[in-house]
Design goal:
The protein is built from eleven helices and 13 strands. The protein is of the alpha/beta class. Helix 3 (67-77) packs across helix 5 (98-119), helix 5 runs parallel beside helix 6 and helix 7 packs across helix 11 (309-326). The longest helix is centred in the N-terminal third of the chain and has 22 residues, at 98-119. The mean pLDDT is 97. It binds NADPH dihydro-nicotinamide-adenine-dinucleotide phosphate and guanosine-5'-diphosphate-rhamnose.
Amino acid sequence: MSATKRALVTGLTGQDGAYLAQLLLSKGYEVHGLVRRSASADVIDARLRWLGIATEIHFHDGNLTDLSSLLRVMGDARPDEVYNLAAQSFVKSSWQQPILTGNVTALGAGNMLEAVRLAAPKARYYQASSSEMYGLIQEPMQSEKTPFYPRSPYAVAKLYAHWMTVNYRESFGLHASSGILCNHESPLRGIEFVTRKITDGVARIKLGLQEKLALGNLDASRDWGHARDYVRAMWLMLQQDKADDYVIATGRTSSIRDFCKLAFGHVGLNYENHVYVDPRFLRPAEVEVLLGDPTKARERLGWTFECSLEQMVAEMVDADLARLSMK
Ligand code: NDP
Ligand code: GDR
C-alpha cells in the first residue's frame, strides 16, 4: 500500500459522495471519482464546488452499467478503498424507471464487485445499502438481524446489491462491507427528496416567492440524520480488520409532518397555513415508518451521530434562504 491512501468513490457528484470526498481529503487521501458523461458537465460538480473541493479530485469517466469502464478506472486509480455510492437513488422514480433502476442500482453494484475482484482484489469495498430494504418493517426497530421486505423497485435493487456484497465477501474473501443507512440529509440533498423540498419551500415562502407547498404522505416517518455524520460511518467500516454489515441510524423517528413543523417553525411560520397534500406525490406502495438500531455501529465502530434533527433542519433552511437570497 502506498504512503498516501487512494480512494475511488462512485456517486461522487451526489450528496454523500461530496461529503465523503471532503472527509477523505481532510484525512490526506488521494481521492478519485467516477463521473458519468453529462451534457451538463458545467454544473455536474456543483456540490463539490459548494464544498470548495472540486479541483482536488481526480475525475475518471465511466458508468456503473459499463463493466469495461470500471475495469479501466480500477487500473488507473489503483484504489486502496472503493466506495460504491452511485445509484438511481430516488425511490419514487424507481416505479417509473424500474429496469434502469435495476441496471444501475442492482447490476451496477454487481459490476463494481466484479471490477474489484478482477482488477483491485486487495481494495476494501463499501456498498451503500439502505434502510429502504426493511420496507414493510418486520420489527419495530431495525437492526442487522431484521428480515428485509422491500416495497419499491429501488429497494429490490438495493437488496440484490447488498446480498452480492455479502456473497463476494464470503465467496472470494473480499474486504466488502455494507452500510445499511437510514435517511440522511443536508443542504446538499437533492431537491426531489422530501426534506430538501420542504426546506427549499420554506425559504421560498418566507421570501415571498411562493405561497403553498404540495407534498404527499405527511404521516410517513423516517429516522433522519446528517450526511456529514453518516459518511464518517462509511469510512470507519473500511478501517476495520474484518469486513461486516452495519445499520447507521439515530434511533429516533419523526414524521414528515414533524419535519414540516420544525422547518416552518424555524422561520416563524405555521406549516398548516402553507402545506397541502397532492395525490401526485403519493407512492404505489409506501414505507410507513423506519427506525434504525445503531447499537452495533456504536459498539464496534465507536460511531455516534453529532448533529440533531433540529440542528440539521435549521442548517438546511438557512442554506436555502441564503441560496435564494443570492439569486
Ligand atoms: P444521490 O442521488 O445524491 O447521488 C447519486 C450518485 O450516483 C450521483 O453522483 C449520480 O451521478 C451517480 N450515478 C447515478 N447513476 C449512475 C451511473 N449509471 N453511473 C455512475 N454514476 C451514477 O444519492 P445520495 O448521495 O443521497 O446517496 C448515495 C448512495 O447511498 C446511493 O446509492 C443511495 O441509494 C444510498 N443511500 C442513500 C441514503 C440517503 O438518505 N441519502 C440512505 C441509504 C442509502 P449524477 O450526478 O451524474 O446524477
Ligand atoms: P426515501 O426519501 O423514499 O425515504 O428515500 P424521500 O425523501 O423521497 O421520501 C421520504 C418519505 O417522504 C414521503 N413524502 C414525500 N417524498 C417526496 N420525495 N416528495 C414529497 O412531496 C413527499 N411527501 C411525502 C415519501 O412518501 C416517503 O415516505 C431516501 C433516498 O435517499 C433513498 O436513496 C435511500 O435509500 C432512503 O432514503 C433511505
